[in-house]
């Protein structure tokens, strides 16, 4: 029997539409179920409760970060809150950060430079756990698929290689 994993895909919204779509296609092509909150705009505590339930129901958590910190609730971005919640709940996680060279050529309109300090602190937080770096949407989708496939090949008793047990 094939196992289907529910994988929570987290990212900021407007800047990563194509990248998120590529990751979701990769997850679907592997026969798993992608979920995430990109389909609606985060705005209040009720939505935060909904997000937490979706993370609780997920087997793995994938975070995609480029040059935006994102929408905030009580001084923290939703992506940071989601990541922190997934870690606290013991959901295996992996963060995919835009790599240095690609950051230099990232479109200015996709950035959020007024929140650059918050973004840099957040990137450092991810780097304390398992992190992988990506250059473009295809590279990102391939790396996410590889992390998932490693588990599909028969690993048991723990999270797939490429995901950090928390």
From TrEMBL:
Protein name: DUF4062 domain-containing protein
Organism the protein comes from: Mesorhizobium ventifaucium
Domain DUF4062: 6-86
InterPro entries from the UniProt entry: DUF4062
């Amino acid at each position: 029997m094939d196992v289907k994993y529910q994988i929570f895909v987290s990212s900021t919204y407007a800047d990563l539409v194509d990248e998120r779509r590529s990751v979701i296609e990769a997850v679907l092509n592997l026969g798993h179920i992608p979920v995430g909150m990109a389909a609606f705009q985060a705005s209040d505590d009720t939505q935060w409760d909904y997000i937490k339930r979706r993370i609780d129901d997920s087997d793995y958590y994938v975070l995609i970060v480029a040059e935006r910190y994102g929408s905030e609730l009580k001084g923290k971005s939703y992506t940071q809150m989601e990541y922190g919640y997934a870690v606290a709940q013991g959901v295996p996680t992996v963060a995919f950060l835009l790599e240095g060279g690609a950051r230099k050529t990232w479109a200015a309109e996709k950035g959020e430079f007024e929140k650059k300090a918050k973004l840099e602190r957040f990137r450092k937080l991810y780097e304390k756990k398992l992190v992988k770096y990506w250059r473009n949407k295809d590279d990102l989708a391939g790396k996410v698929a590889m992390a998932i496939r490693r588990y599909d090949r028969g690993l048991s008793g723990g999270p797939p290689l490429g995901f950090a047990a928390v």
